[in-house]
Amino acid sequence: MSSSATARTDFFARHEVLLRRAADAVTERGYFSAYPESPSKSVYGEEAPAAGEAAFRARLDKPFDLPGHPGEAGAVGAEVSPYGLKLGITYPRVDPAEAVAVARTAGRAWRRATPDERAGVAAEILARLNAASFEMAHAVHHTTGQPFVMAFQAGGANAQDRGLEAVAYAWAAQKRHPATASWVKPQRKGEPIALDKTFTPVGRGVSVLVACNTFPTWNGYPGLFASLVTGNPVIVKPHANAVLPLALSVRLARDVLAEAGFDPNVVLLAAEAADGRSAQPLATHPDVRIVDFTGSTRFGDWLEDNARQAAVHTEKAGLNTVVLDSTDDYKGLLRNLAFSLSLYSGQMCTTPQNLYVPRSGLRGDQGVKTPAEFAADLSGALDKLLGDPQRAAGTLGALATGAVLDRVEKARTVGSVRYGGRPVEHPEYPQAVLRTPLVAVLDATEDAEVYRAEWFGPVSFVIATDSTEHSLDLLRETIGRFGALTATVHSTEEPVLEAAREAALDAGVHLAENFTGQVFVNQSAAFSDFHGSQANPAASATLTDPAFVTGRFAVLQSRRPATPADEEGGRA
Amino acid sequence: MSSSATARTDFFARHEVLLRRAADAVTERGYFSAYPESPSKSVYGEEAPAAGEAAFRARLDKPFDLPGHPGEAGAVGAEVSPYGLKLGITYPRVDPAEAVAVARTAGRAWRRATPDERAGVAAEILARLNAASFEMAHAVHHTTGQPFVMAFQAGGANAQDRGLEAVAYAWAAQKRHPATASWVKPQRKGEPIALDKTFTPVGRGVSVLVACNTFPTWNGYPGLFASLVTGNPVIVKPHANAVLPLALSVRLARDVLAEAGFDPNVVLLAAEAADGRSAQPLATHPDVRIVDFTGSTRFGDWLEDNARQAAVHTEKAGLNTVVLDSTDDYKGLLRNLAFSLSLYSGQMCTTPQNLYVPRSGLRGDQGVKTPAEFAADLSGALDKLLGDPQRAAGTLGALATGAVLDRVEKARTVGSVRYGGRPVEHPEYPQAVLRTPLVAVLDATEDAEVYRAEWFGPVSFVIATDSTEHSLDLLRETIGRFGALTATVHSTEEPVLEAAREAALDAGVHLAENFTGQVFVNQSAAFSDFHGSQANPAASATLTDPAFVTGRFAVLQSRRPATPADEEGGRA
Questions:
Q1: How far apart are CA A116 and CA A128, in angstroms?
Q2: E strands, A276-344, in order
Q3: What is the pTM of this model?
């Protein structure tokens, strides 16, 4: 046995208990987390914060080192932090066809590894990612504009949990059938017929991950790890604005692969310039059999239409909806919703956009609130939440791109009444662009064109409807047609909640009911919450469910006689 | 509780033990069968054969009765048995858009049933299909041309087993996550945050089954039952030549649904005239979200290209391959292969077509056989197998269509030497058209165009190659490009078998090794053998694996605070 074979076994043995626990957790769906989300010295060590920042700083203004990676080193890269810092890091540029060919070659030995070996390698990659969480937090912070603590959590620990969740599903799915079986069929006369059978999970082929600007790791890891563990090489195509978090991830993955005796080119980085269009040739290459994508509806639809040779998993966008009927905690409702709208300036695929209030008003412990009154109260809650600049910056982060800012400006022209959308100065980074959430009051009928489009960023609408029933009809119709990742209902009436559940099942969207405390609809917890449903246009994938992994591999069988077929011989 | 609700519960309770056993069997993959395949009075009862035939005869020459079925009753139907009998049965004609609308409406209550209830209904349908096995055998025999015993087995018991296998996968997949979960997240300070969560499997939408002429039930039941059990209404679109087997199945399904208190229109029959084209509008209807298809590559590719709104599962065709290297049981090999080529006149998607023999010869216990010598010996084995007319008829069945006969005639013009293809008179049905398998000797290089196409029916090629390595290269290349459902290798050398396994993994095809006894590569046993691999162009579906069921439903969640969020109240 070679030393590399020993290393493979070690990684599985090292992580087997965790893998078993994670595989149980996905079927139990209670609370489970493998990676602490608190950026605390008591958890990660006294030196970790400073060491992480130093590691991040040390990468600036030089080529990113990826030993043995194909392509032209240091050829592309122009990341500028939403907080103003020019990263100055360059990455290798690889021709798409070359990347696919290299990945395919590297994938041959990876295919022959067992699901246990592959899961062990994946768990070790995640362990190293976790150890690098502070460095990753800086990388995510300075590429996405997420506030630092959120970058640590969503970009680090929570993303690692989502990765482990995908590992658990992929590992369990391949172990659902035995590696071998004996088939003994009784005969009405004479001896039974016996066959020995072998079942081998085989990866589908080269996998391509097309990642997004805002959540490169959280949205990227599930596809990356699901493909890896099911035996597929993966080409990681980051968004040009957010390369570093995935370059760090690729680098750690390649280290672990090499230590385990595999070709590190099982995981490749396909960075490109901001005007690059490599996602198209990568995703449509005949040898690419799996594509994972997070991003715009336009490009997601393009991939679904054109990457016909591949299993395509998309998370696109939609009209996240809140139906406001009644509440017994109006202040809690406002606080909760204000935070949901503010977190990372609404640049989350889960941020509510369309808030439906009956013209007759939202009933509650603070009286009846018309749509206009509710919008004013919500604006007040936002002002309270974001009044302190330090706290505002820690909640809003920074606008990731000029396109988001343009959308806020454009939203100033819609609706009858508008609140918010005002600039906030970042106490630490004067170059960062921040806006408080803009809330506009619309009419369900007159302004249909406005709220039936997605306004990604800090823009939400309080929409006056005829009744809660009308609100639920709108939920059903708009989400069925345009998609959504989240829906929320506030009601004190059980029949209304029942009707909301039925509407959510019709629309194919996950529902949150009466969130007034410290859980927010934007948050989706690995191992418990499904993210995306495949049941409405917002996503053709769910993070993570069995459908997310079963299409990434096939089980191939061979069968042979178990005993000599007759006295003339047969297989010994 | 209404009486219909009681009936639902009964069906699950009645079949729960069987469902559990079936769910275990699919993960064990040893031998399991729920429905006896022997058409024996000792198994099915003294009266069963005569009663089954009488039931079949009673349906001839009249409209097929489907109480409550939409459409114009008795409007279409022109089935003529390959054995000469004109069935004279007519079926309702339903407009595709009406069928989809009716199914959609019926599906609403079906969605609300639990996975247990749906699995219970499905198991009861299968029990009634099993009780009707003799009637079904006549229906399959007289629509497909299968010999009677095969029609009983493949069209009855084995098809029912494949159906139950799909039920087991679909049922287990929906129970993989709990119906409810409690999520309690510890906080670094203060009380934990607690949510109650509900998880509901929801069917994707209307499902359409486009069935084939030759195996309407065996190939049709998996998709039908997988969709039903995952909560989808199903429109069954039979081939115009083989409506009756599926009409019987639909009728029994509707009976059980009605008894369980559901709208029988959860299962519809969409029969059409021989020149009908209703598969296209059905499969591409916006509300149709699942399509199952067995048939030609041409139409399967069309569905994959055009039914973009649906999850499409196809079983098409390919170049089933045998690599002949060496054997220690030459006579057994010939007997086994002769039967494989003869069974139902090669009209199986699993029948071998391309038999590769090195020019230097197949080595074995009977000496070295050149391709020409092997073809002559195989022809001798075929003559021996088919020498007795009664046995020949019981093995060959009848050619299903004139197109198959044309193909045999066309094959008389290819290759250097040809055997077989001779007419056989059916001892009972003089109108039946039978041909012994035609075996032509080809050269791997010169005749590439001939054997790189599918010749569905009793046509096979002995192809002279440079070496076994060359044969394996051809297996890899032709199956990778054109697909195959079966591959076989004969070798006494372990390194050759290893190389064949590797080539089969590359090509994405299931492998049979050294079949010389009473198991034939055409046979695919439910609960143990995977049929189709999704890993080569012959099939985008596997009967049955988790991927076959996971795309038919989504799990939607709702979540709500488990406790008052704070002292101001929250949900009680």
A1: 18
A2: 288-294, 311-315, 321-324, 326-327
A3: 0.95
